[in-house]
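Structure tokens please, single chain.
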Amino acid sequence: MIRRAIAVFALLCAAAPAAFASVTVTGRSVTGTEGTELNVTVASGSTSEKTNACLNATIDWGDGATSMGTILPGGSSFTVRGSHTYAMAGHPDLVTTVRATSPCSPATASAHSPVTINDAPLTATGAPVAAYARYRATVVVATFTDGNSLAKAGDFTATVDWGDGTSGPATIATRPGGGFQVTGRTTYKTPDTYPVSVAINDAGGATATATTTATISAAPPPAHLLGVGAAPDRDPLVRAFAPNGDLLLNFRAYPKRMTSGVRVATGDVNGDGAADVITAPGSKGRAVVQVFSGIDGHRLRRFRAFVGRFHAGVYVAAGDVDGDGHTDIVVGAGEGGRPIVRVFSGATGAR
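Here you go.
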């Protein structure tokens, strides 16, 4: 009877479940700077086991990245270390999870760590601006670098104060060779020098300001003009407009009594780099073709495209027909005239 009782007691002891191990974890404060690798202790804790050799740790860094933590072999107390680089400043939710595995009894514990990731500093430099008045200018106004090597152009915004009472947003792009550049668009109305200020803001909170000077000059005569003639029975005035819409020339090409209208073409006839204005009488006009300077409107040339009793008017066009770098003058007889087309050299005037 005694032997049977001892056997039953032994069987009950063998069947009794082993006690689970306990693990406690406490998060440690973590501080760093965006773009700079951290190698830090993220948590500490203890286990009821005599050794931490059977513990492993996983770190969720709170920015979508996870990694295994390092627990140095030792007694029942332990610390968890890890390495990570945050791309953005902020306060991510870092969670450390420690698990006890075989041969230790299973156990799991987690802890949150307070994290502060500071914004890396910005360093900005203004870029000189040069543009023409009344022409839309797209210019680089500043360059800058971020201490965060993982920064992207989309992390930043910028505003430009153009110094003429206007301001507006700018675009950020990666700069060839490293860093970033700020590009703005504006139109200055008057030639002058203007103080320009560029404010740059990082999504993480860092800011930088760059200053520069805009030198705005009067635009040179354009290589292309839009010429506008006159309709029949109107004052034979001719107007020439720059590509930006500025009226550059406004003159009477023929005597006011001429009522046939004025047809025009434009091109650099004299080779000075500026487009000139070529005029011809319209319907029923005489064949008198003239060339006026696109710089100041003075007459450069006057000739008869057709001779005799010609009153059919002239169509006029311009182009470098002979490839000598000067715009040549192409004329054709108007309605009622003979089907004749002639080309006159822009360089010499010869037909």
